[in-house]
Amino acid sequence: MAKFIQSLINGLNLGSVYALTALGYTMVYGIIRMINFAHGDFIMVGGFTLFYTIPVMRAMGLPLWFSVFAAIAVCVVVGVLTEQIAYKPVRGQGSTTALITALGMSLILENGALVVFGSAPRNVSPMFDLPTLKFGPVSTPGTTILTLVIGIVVMILLMVFIKNTKLGAAMRAVPEDKIASTLVGVNVNHIITATFAIGSGLAAVASMMYTTSYVSIKNEMGITLGLKAFVAAVLGGIGSIPGAMLGGLMLGIIEIMVKVYMLPGAYEAVTYLILIIVLLVKPSGLMGKNISEKV
Amino acid sequence: MPAKMKKNYLICIIGVVIGYLLLSLVFDTGILGTRSAYFNGLAVIGMFYTIVVCSLNLLTGYMGEFSLGHAGFMSIGAYASAIVTTLIGQKVELSGIVIYLIAILVGGIAAGIIGFLVGIPALRLSGDYLCIVTVAVAEIVRVVLSNVGIPAITGAATFGKSFSGIAKVSDYHYVYITMVVCIFIMYCYIRSRYGRALIAIREDRIAAESSGINVTRTKVLTFTISAFFAGVGGAVYAHYITTLVPTYFNFSKSSEFLAIVILGGSGSMTGSIVASPILAALPQMISYVVPAFASYRMLIYAVILVIVMIFKPSGLFGTREFSLPKLLERISGSRKKADAR
Amino acid sequence: MKKEEVPVLETKNLGISFGGLKAVNDVNMQIYPGELIGLIGPNGAGKTTIFNLITGIYKPTEGSYFLCGKRMNGLSTHQVVAEGIARTFQNIRLFKKMSVLDNVRVAFNKNMKTTLAGSILRTPFFWKEEEETTKKAMELLRLFHLEGFANENAENLPYGKQRLLEIARALATDMKILLLDEPAAGMNPVETAELKDSIRMLREEFKIPILLIEHDMSLVMSICERIYVLNFGEILASGTPEEIASNKDVIEAYLGKEDELEGGETSAEG
Question: Is residue B326 part of a domain?
């Protein structure tokens, strides 16, 4: 039982990383119908920012977790630049071009990091110094609980933002109908940029959670994380914000459970198998809407 | 066969033979000296890339669907062929050409079967969804290959993830012929009623169905053929490199194949044939001369990809095809004009 | 009407609901050999939906339909075409990046016999069949005066010619009945006149029945033998053009309330 609860906590933790990342995918896909393959690499960018800024914070005598803000800033800049430089010019060129451009940007970030940081894995020093928490037989690192709480709080804040602000309303409106949104005075370009900024910021928070639990970062880490998060987004129903959260958390729990109770080596295969089954049975995902072609 | 076609085919055959002779001239005469083996290897790499990239172009350019999992089909071909040839090799002594033929057939058929099995359910999807399913399939294949002790199947002494000791039979003579045959088959497929139906589906699925085309069957057939040739490419690779590691066939490899298709021109076999050897071998050659280049290779590649997408999304050749007979016609045509003057 | 004959196309209580909303309801139509039937009705009446039902794009939720007495429910689109129902589309659906000739050759596909192996090995049969298909396709193009454009990409054709090419493509499927969905939409008067000639020519050459959706009333009234009027997914009236033109319900459906009736007839006719 203790093992189960511990796995559940770990699963929720990993799931929150996926969920935060999946949000970026789902919001971008909702607006411009493009799989932003580079999104996973934003986490890698965030990870390296943490790696380099934590010692700086230490030297300056500031709290180490201040580096999260640096990561958010860097990720937002990278995200918005990616959108402005590469994605904006190919908008309206069709889905093929968008897909390949996104793939290209992912390769640029991944291999740019290879050139700048090298291929050796780095260990990010811990940001928080918390004792291990014990609940009866269950013991878990305090940082895991803390980051989990942060992740969930960020998601709730996002929900509140989307529901209750003008920008949030516009972000909900644009995926519904681009032309109509323009007609009621929404600047679609600004909304797309804002979406990228928020998505990248979330990726930075995800990188904080990831590095706290898994420590090691590498230039290639974005691909796998990104693919998994994308799976989560599809699982929940691509374009659906609550769907991305649900999909992410589910995926995290499933992966940890498979790892602990079934085949340790096969958890990734299980993830992708779930994706295939979901796509074949209900392509719109758990919470997505069906779209059909007009004849 | 119409007379004009006969002439065109003859011209193409002559072109292919000249290519073969050129290749032999470079490698068999040993004018490259000690570097011969290295360039020999590059040629083989360029050629198996061409096979795989053309097979992917069949999907991307003519069917209008993306596969980001072609490395997965390639790996199935590589492993299946390697297992079979290794097992056979333990029982009987066969000549290189026989082993090679067995390898490419087994590789192609194994990948084709998996492609067929994946295609039946998956091709109900299209666009981004299908693309992501191919990623998922390739990842599953990779994870399975990493976890199942493939080397143990062949009773090899080496355990673990790498599968070594595969017969090195991918001689560039054979590979060249394989490549030409593969391209020819794919070309014939496109230029037949099957290919016409396929392109019609790409252009407008509903109109194609309303013109009596069985869309699902055409798509599954094409997907199977594409997987088959990816498997052939994998078999060639396995019997050239002799040691297989599952991580070679990862998402990046699949992206690389897709990038080459797009850069060459999606829907142009010529584009794939020109772009594959250049993009597969040239970077390796540069890093051979300038070792520091190795880490920049994929970066430069990706930057070019994005720039091409922004400024010329149709790639190098668009959907145009190079035709040797037409070129000759144009040359002789302009000469005739000159003579007339 | 020749009641003793088996209708080429017959619908019995045909209907479909989308999420509880009845888009088409209880439609009964019969089309006999050689007839040219008009299907008219206000926008959103469900005309194209009927076409989509008959061609297997939508599956009927009620009733059934028959081709020469054979029940067709549940067949997929390509099977419906194989049985002999061909159609065109309201918003032209050509294979834009294919040549005009190939647009037609594609539609011959279902009756071609060359196997996959034959295509790859380039057998003599392959060449023979390709040649025959090309010849047949060119003949069809000639009927619509499109032979000069055979090697152009379909997207480069003028609008009116694109409509004609779509009809030529439909004919290549070797059908028993042809469904035309607003062939005159967006055409100028010259092109419409050309279309009218083409439809006449079709009837003489192929002797097949045609079901025509059209908004251009003068065209429908002048060439159709019978007309079905659809309103809110149901058949409102049917009969000869004269009967339809003087039908009170029809005029009302097109113009609304009784007090606006004055201009009714002119609108129904042109």
Answer: no
**Residue A210 belongs to a domain:** yes
User: Is there a domain that residue B260 lies in?
Assistant: no
ipTM summary value = 0.88
Axis-axis angle for helices C100-108, C124-143 (nearest 10): 120
Asked if B217 and C77 count as a contact pair (C-beta separation under 8 A), the reply is no
Instruction: Tell me whether residue A242 is in a domain.
Output: no
Residues 225-284 (A) with a CB less than 8 A from some CB of B: 227, 230-231, 234, 263, 265-266, 268-269, 272-273, 275-276, 279-280, 283
Closest residue in B to C117 (Cα) is B189
Note the pTM of the prediction, 2 decimals.
0.89
CA distances from C21 to B62, C24, C158 (A): 39, 9, 38
- What pLDDT band is residue C151 in, cutting at 50, 70 and 90? very high
| DSSP H helical ranges for chain A | 2-32, 39-60, 67-82, 88-90, 95-117, 142-164, 166-176, 178-183, 188-214, 221-236, 241-261, 267-281
CA distance B263 to C141: 37
The tokens for B61 are: 């350019």
Contacts of A26 (CB under 8 A, 6+ apart): A233, A236, A238, A239, A240, A241, A243, A244
C68, C155: one domain = no
CATH value at residue C72: 3.40.50.300
Identify the domain containing residue A42 by its residue range: 15-222
Number of domains composing chain B? 1
The answer as to whether C90 is a domain residue is no
Q: How many domains does chain A have?
A: 1
In chain A, residues with a C-beta closer than 8 Å to the C-beta of C89 are: 295
Three-class DSSP category at C247:
coil
Domain that holds residue B36: 3-250
A49 assigned to some structural domain: yes
Is the domain of C185 the same as that of C75?
yes
Q: Is A280 on the interface with C (CB under 8 A)?
A: no
| B26 and C CB contact within 8 Å | no
Q: Pick the last residue of a domain from C141, C174, C207.
A: C174
Per-position DSSP letters for A58-126, written without gaps between them: HHHT--GGGHHHHHHHHHHHHHHHHIIIIIHHHTTS-HHHHHHHHHHHHHHHHHHHHHHH-SS-EEPPP
Which secondary-structure segment (H or E) carries C110? none
User: What digits encode the pLDDT tens for the residues B230-257?
Assistant: 999 999 999 999 999 988 998 889 988 9
* Angle of the B3-28 helix axis to the B324-340 helix axis, nearest 10: 110
Q: Pairing relation of β-strands C85-87 and A216-217?
A: unpaired
Identify the domain boundary among C123, C154, C174.
C174
Name beta bridge partners: C30. Answer: C10
Task: Calculate mean pLDDT across residues B164-181.
Answer: 91
